[in-house]
Write a structure and sequence with these properties.
The structure is a homodimer of 232-residue chains. With 232 residues, the first copy, chain A, is an alpha/beta fold. The first copy, chain A, is built from eight helices and five strands. In chain A, strands 3-2-1-4-5 form a five-stranded parallel β-sheet, with helices on both faces. In chain A, strand 2, helix 2 and strand 3 form a beta-alpha-beta unit. The radius of gyration of chain A is 17 Å and the shape is globular. The mean pLDDT of chain A is 94.
Amino acid sequence: MKNQKAIILLSGGIDSATCLAMAVKQYFQVYCLTFNYGQRHSIEIECARKIAQGFAVKEHKIMHINLRQIGGSALTDEIPVPHNRELLLMHKNIPVTYVPARNTIFLSYALAWAEVVQIGDIFIGVNAVDFSGYPDCRPAYIKKFEELANLATKIAIEGIVRFVIHTPLIKLTKADIIKTAKTLGIDLSLTHSCYDPSPDGSACGVCDSCLLRLKGFSEAGSKDPILYCYKK
Amino acid sequence: MKNQKAIILLSGGIDSATCLAMAVKQYFQVYCLTFNYGQRHSIEIECARKIAQGFAVKEHKIMHINLRQIGGSALTDEIPVPHNRELLLMHKNIPVTYVPARNTIFLSYALAWAEVVQIGDIFIGVNAVDFSGYPDCRPAYIKKFEELANLATKIAIEGIVRFVIHTPLIKLTKADIIKTAKTLGIDLSLTHSCYDPSPDGSACGVCDSCLLRLKGFSEAGSKDPILYCYKK
């Protein structure tokens, strides 16, 4: 039997689109939340819009918040996006594309909206295999946010809702996620992963996110349908 | 000996101004963070600016975020602010002036900024005595956010900083806070507490926040220097 409602954090990438497709199978009404946060790759917002439309979600809210006021990341500040890094290095060091406290900010807004629409189930497409370096993608962090949510809000305190942060991709590799996405019928040509796209929207092919995406497609034995310009 | 740096959430009310004054005594450099979040009483932002200037803080950041996109509170939505409620009632029920997940959102931004400027000490002027109804003002919530902060961020994971959420007012009544504020030389005429001010900026005198403020001044045996219009 389907559950009632869920909120999905939707970035426009493969992971969150897959999360959304998984939630749509389990819930009658799905609410999507996307952030225009001053990210270098704001093209992903248009992708998120098309993906949400494709799934006929109940509501898609695009929050405008300006993390450039805070900066400190290659995605929100005047810091170059690293090119052609080795995968081993990605695992070892938290990269400059890490945005300080981003998932905490995103989940906080999801929590606020969830409280207003009285939804306990929140989905986030974090996965700890390919990007184990990001602190706010790990299971211990997610568990702690879930505990916080149940202390932070009126509807949890009053017993109306119990918050659960769902992370259905947490143990999947990028290849696993791509296979799942295809099984669920997601049009992957609508997704965007690149941190540093060209003005025409084509992916750079050399940032960490492109490298992981391309590796994922390769391991999944399928072809990535998006355009790459392979920046020098 | 003074510590190095701290971040203070500054709303423009008595509590956060007192928090700021306390921090200024303990830290060399104080960074203030204020939110223009679409609040009905946005006049408090100007108060915050004057208070921060008075203390010659190192930096005062005013974040523009629009919680009206989420709504669900008398402060951010088309819900009337309750007038002349009994204090007993304020303690029993979480009022409609509660803004869903507000402190979680505010603390998340403080955490993001703290990470960029590498500051571990974050001050928030919550107090659990007079407004025990708000879930995100209680000690258990604050402790949980502190735990989250130390899992959520690169600088905590790498051992560069340990986050501490300071709540120096948590056990004080409003009267205690007012006495402390006066001892610390805060110009309380610069502070603003009213949820529903008149266009001329005078306080309504009848919302929960005004009632608690007036009761606090009365119990502290002093006169509130701000203007009231006492709305009908």
